[in-house]
Amino acid sequence: MRLSPRLVLAVALLLTPLAGHAIAPPWAAAGNTGTITPGNFWYSFNPSTGVLVEGIILTWNNGGITFSSGFNGTGTYSVTYNVTSPQASPGWTTLEMGYSIASGGGVVTTLYQVNPNTGAKTTLCSVGSATGATYQGCDFTTAMNFNSFAYYVQVDLGRTAKTQFPQINYLKIH
């Protein structure tokens, strides 16, 4: 059976717009692949004994990054993740995070859009942890455009007591 050139052309024209508007596969990152923001480490030593008196440490733990600390360290510390896409306009609308706050503390995840010409950043969405849950998400309406902007996710791990160990396990944008 021989296909008509007109039929082949018609089918090609019908399928072309669909390929250009397909949603890209999700972007995902394991919690332990983030970059710990400079300044998130500090230590205090007793100079006469050389012993660590107090300090803040973010550690890689079972696929995630955990806020751990020596002694009395508390506060909020950040981890960042660069977002990339195989498509200029991937069609994503949701940021999702998986986390653990079994021992207390909190996790806040924010998706930022950055104008490479000015450095101005815009929050697309932000979501915080909730007691009793292990994942949360937020939806955003601004279309991502990798031809015009850069994107990153910032995860803030916070605690008010040294017995709290909040952890980011994974991130996904879909």
Structure in words:
The chain is mainly beta and 174 residues long. It has a single domain, classed as Jelly Rolls (Sandwich). The protein contains one helix and twelve strands, in the order H-E-E-E-E-E-E-E-E-E-E-E-E. The strands form two sheets. Strands 1, 3, 4, 5, 7, 10 and 12 form a seven-stranded antiparallel β-sheet that branches. Strands 2-6-11-8-9 form a five-stranded antiparallel β-sheet, with no helix packed on it. It starts with a helix and ends with a strand.
Quick tags:
Jelly Rolls; single chain; 5-stranded antiparallel beta sheet; about 170 residues; 7-stranded antiparallel beta sheet; mainly beta
Sheet-strand content, in percent, reads over 45%
CATH architecture: Sandwich
Number of strands: 12
Tell me, what is the CATH class? Mainly Beta
- Give the overall average pLDDT: 78
* Succession of helices and strands: HEEEEEEEEEEEE
Number of domains: 1
Provide the gyration radius in Å. Answer: 22 Å
- Helix proportion of residues, in percent? under 10%
Question: How would the blueprint of this fold be written?
Answer:
Layout: H1 5-20, E1 27-30, E2 35-36, E3 42-46, E4 51-61, E5 64-70, E6 75-83, E7 94-100, E8 106-114, E9 121-128, E10 135-139, E11 150-159, E12 167-173
Antiparallel strand pairs: 1-12, 2-6, 3-4, 4-5, 5-12, 6-11, 7-10, 7-12, 8-9, 8-11
